[in-house]
Design a protein that fits this description.
The protein has 23 helices and no strands. The chain is mostly helical and about 475 residues long. The protein has a domain of about 110 residues: Serine Threonine Protein Phosphatase 5, Tetratricopeptide repeat. GO terms for molecular function: DNA binding.
Amino acid sequence: MRKAATHPLRTARTRYNLTIEQLAQETSMSTATIWRAEHNYSINAESRRRLCTYFGMTSQELGLAITPERGQKKLLTTRAASSSPTLAPAHLHELDPTNTYPRHEGHATHTTATPIATTPFQEQTGLWLILGASQLSSAFEQQWTPETLFESLHIVSQSLRGMPTSVRLALQHYGIGSLHLKEHMSASECFQLQESFTHSVNQAWQFSHASRPEQVLAVGHALRMLLDYIHTLLPPRIHAIFSASIYNLIGSALHHLDASEAEEQMYARAYAAASEAQDPWHQAQSRNWQAIAANFAGRYSRAIQYIEEAYRLIEELEGEEFLCSKAHLLANWAYNAAILQDYAIVQEKLEASGQLLKALTPNDEFDAATWHQIAGNCTLMNGRYNEAITHFEQSLAQFPEHWRSRRALTLIPLAEAYAKKREKEASLVIAQEAASEVHTLSSKMLMNRLLEYQHVLIEAFPRDPGVRKFIAHATPTR
């Protein structure tokens, strides 16, 4: 006797290693409905839609029966309502997953059509590409390049790769805000998830050195939403540590956007999360960021108070990460002291920072390039222009080319030092490079710093036509 062919829905179900009961739970349907579908009984349109959405296949491919009356009346161009949003573009659910071939006026249609040989993944990706194009056009209008988009996707995808398959599939089918995870992971799966999320956060900080603040903000919020989604899968302390780092990242982007109130809120949340985790390193990091925000707001004494508190948190702790943070805090302490013209403290803190730095390997948080940048600013404020120029040039020689933000923060005071020495040509050449970086990054904080340099330039060369021309081109129209 010839064996009956396996029903397409059952084939798809077994490919996902699901029982009827499990599929029913995944799609919020009854087991009876799935049993009927697999035995060629008709099921209603909503049930067909849920199954098609889950597997990313059409009704024809899943062999879902349609009653003759409904089949005659159904138009292939009808849109299906969606009750389960996904991570696909916002309008993806408007496409009826039970249909792929629209009717054409004036041409006969067939009750069945030969589907193109594709996999569920190919179909889903094809729909995403079609509808995603309209979403991407808005990103391109906001100065996102294909390379930046790909890098952002890569950062987020690191976290997705570490998720258990069932969690990732649930995210794909139900969306990020509509599912309460109840997964039970093994110790190895939990470690893999933490490792992958750590890679994402570290890459996001790297991304922040070379990207526009709006783009960093988008990546930061994406990581925050993913962290909220998987929070039940992580130990509370690990979740709090990730939260602290991501809040600091978002705050740093808001810092460049000159959104001081929102920035300070992010740093306060970061500190609270780090305190909850009892993690002194992240506590010190958050306090240091709060000091930077206070400095830009002109609250220099308050900035020093934040730095002192941060330093006390890690003063007795050993290890390279703590030595690096202490070196960074001491240098920032010197910078704020220079603004307050306490040059004895400036010398003391810079020397202490430099001594710690000698024992460290190169580090993204604080390295010799950053130390020379801060030392250059301190000597510039003290009127030692040649010494400042030497520090800035040493800093630029060591910064990676793509770290545009830090390069701009070094180029601008270097141009200022040359202006104060009345070396106009050198100042303008460097200022042109700085202006290019500032406009590329579209950072309000850097633009304000560039405007401060222009005031110095006008004071040094009040009636110079070359200076006026530079200012006219460097200042954006508002």
